[in-house]
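Protein modeling request. Please complete all fields; requests missing the sequence field cannot be processed.
Requester role: graduate student
Desired output: 3D structure, token encoding
Chains: 1
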Amino acid sequence: MAKHILKCSGCGEYTMDEVHSCGSPALPVKPAKYSPEDKYGKYRRETKKEQFKKEGLL
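Delivered output (58 residues):
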């Protein structure tokens, strides 16, 4: 049994089981470790900014 909360890849529900009741595998929801030398942060921010513009949030 897992020690952390997992998210089902099929239905999106949170669970503690490695295989959710719908039969799909559950994946960890922990964010990546923070690094001040983030090589890909610029690209991630640009993508998020474009997404916000599409949704009308910016």
